[in-house]
Amino acid sequence: MASDDAPGAALELLGVVAYGELAAFDRLAEDARLAPELADRVEMTGMAAVQYAHFSKAEDRIVELGGDVLAAMEPYRRPFDEFHALTRPKTWHEGLLKAYIGDGLASDVYREVSDLADDSTRELVHEVLAADRFDDFAVSRVRAAIDADPDSAGRLALWGRRLVGEAMSQAQRVLAERPALAGLLTGAPNGSLAEITRIMARLVENHSARMTRLGLSA
Amino acid sequence: MASDDAPGAALELLGVVAYGELAAFDRLAEDARLAPELADRVEMTGMAAVQYAHFSKAEDRIVELGGDVLAAMEPYRRPFDEFHALTRPKTWHEGLLKAYIGDGLASDVYREVSDLADDSTRELVHEVLAADRFDDFAVSRVRAAIDADPDSAGRLALWGRRLVGEAMSQAQRVLAERPALAGLLTGAPNGSLAEITRIMARLVENHSARMTRLGLSA
Fold first, then answer.
1. Least buried of A116, A161, A204, B176, by fewest C-beta within 10 Å?
2. pLDDT tens profile B51-61
3. What is the C-alpha separation between A135 and A139, in angstroms, rounded?
4. Going by C-beta distance under 8 Å and a sequence separation of 6 or more, which residues neighbour residue B180?
């Protein structure tokens, strides 16, 4: 769908991706400081740099489409900033879990919305999605932490629930404030609540699978 | 010189570059948060990402030479971390000045020591040096700030002096603690104090030229 107003749809999508990646860069760079070992810090710093590379691709594409990257990002600053302000990790393992869970959620969202865009934007989004070389790092470290301290599993499970809860509540607010985006996403003018609920359900399902992969209850 | 023990010399040099860039990444990512405008934050985030790319090249080269990146960086963690802890910018303009001054100083140091390394390491160092596309951004922003508030010139000049002072004192400590590095740098076993002083004088001279470019007294 939406190939008629592809630039508009693409700009909405690219604005979300661009600011989401910029915010992710910022938080990963900050959370890397929680690393107990230099090796871990190097890994998470690398994750941050990857987010910047994604931002940069989204920016290029926005410019190609005749858009302005700052204007495209503006509507999405508050929800992402609020999400991150409300979910500041207090420990390295909380930071790692957030990196893994947040990256997974973001990928799922991009996948849901990428069909709305033109071919070349869709390609860019899928390229961004392919870069998940840090997943194994995060999973193995979190699993090792739980093995070493089984009591931490309960706390981390709660933390994962809180992360997905905050993400969903920000997403719902964005969709309420941006009926055009909700419309694009659901294929119904101003959005279909039923379809939004189905999308949210898919996101939560994938989130649960990631928690299981970590050995945590969702 | 030093082509006999090129791997050893190169690993010393690459260790400095790798940790210096990793620390610069970390500080630029943090200081980007001081940006008053999203556009400025995007620019400084880009500067941070460039430092990570440099780190990553140094890391690859260390591995090629059969070294270990964490071991190569270890001796340089404390001096860089101390430098940054002692020079945390309190304002966006202090952060910008630090980014410009710090990047310039680092480039000069890399240039001084790159002759000690093998061809391919030297090439890498010069590649890192070529990436100064952010200089104009920093210079134009700092100059505009001084034009808008001429009283700030005195404070920023003092800040520049403090930055170079802390950098020099960390460099001197490193050279005292790493006689092998001082030896490499000066071509004399354990280092020649006279030669070190000459190198420091060149670094300060270049620093002064940068301050002048900003319209500040050094």
1. B176
2. 999 899 999 99
3. 6
4. B8, B12
Contacts for B69 with CB less than 8 Å, ≥ 6 apart? A42, B18, B58, B59, B62, B63
CATH number at residue A120: 1.20.1260.10
> What is the nearest CA distance from B43 to chain A, expressed in angstroms?
11
What domain count does chain A have?
1
Residues with Cβ within 8 Å of residue A2, at least 6 apart in sequence = A9, A116, A117, A184
**Residue B76: domain span:** 6-213
Q: What distance in Å separates the CA atoms of residue A118 and residue A49, rounded to the nearest whole number?
A: 26
Please give the full DSSP string across B122-190, using - where no structure is assigned. Answer: HHHHHHHHH--TTHHHHHHHHHHHHHH-TTHHHHHHHHHHHHHHHHHHHHHHHHHH-HHHHHHHHTSTT
Residue B1: inside a domain: no
Q: Do A70 and B39 touch (CB under 8 A)?
A: yes
Q: Where are the beta strands (DSSP E) in chain A?
A: none
Residue A153 corresponds to which tokens in the numbers above?
Answer: 């599993």
Identify whether A192 is part of a domain: yes
Residue of B nearest to A33 (CA): B26
Kindly tell me if the per-residue pLDDT of B149 is higher than 70. yes
Chain B: closest CA distance from residue A132 (Å): 18
To which residue do tokens 């009591």 refer?
A151
